[in-house]
Specification:
alpha/beta, 2,3-Dihydroxybiphenyl 1,2-Dioxygenase, domain 1, 4-stranded mixed beta sheet, 2 helices, 17% helix, 40% strand
């Protein structure tokens, strides 16, 4: 069996797909790829396809995994998204100090109750 490699698609549950579609498009500014009917919306997340969908079965009706979106400037991105009406759970903060760099994060909620995050790696002297 060949090993797994790159992620091609990630699915995020939505109770209201049209509301979630608007959030990812208008609030997060993601590139919309296409819709497949009223219950599927697809976005480009840096080459990975993000599928927003209503759960197809009761067993799949739960919040999704945390998606971490890489940004170049976490403070500028946080400010811009906040201005668009995105609710953050916290301010950008350091989560790891590594040799020559720091990893920063800030968590937010999407329109469907899923937790997302923005993250940046900052070079330090």
């Amino acid at each position: 069996m060949a090993g797994l490699s790159a992620i091609q698609q990630i699915s995020v549950n939505a109770r209201d797909v049209q509301r979630a579609r608007a959030f990812y498009l208008d609030k997060l500014g993601m590139k919309h790829l296409f819709d497949a009917g009223p219950t599927l919306a697809f976005f480009d997340a840096g080459g990975i396809r993000l599928m927003i969908t209503a759960p197809s079965q009761q067993e799949f009706d739960h919040p999704g995994s945390i998606l971490y979106f890489r940004v170049d400037d976490i403070h500028a991105s946080h400010a811009e998204l906040t201005a668009r009406g995105v609710h953050f759970r916290d301010e950008p903060h350091v989560v790891a100090r590594l040799p020559g760099r720091e990893v920063w994060m800030s968590f937010l909620d999407d329109s469907e109750g899923n937790v997302l995050a923005i993250t940046a790696e900052v070079v330090v002297p």
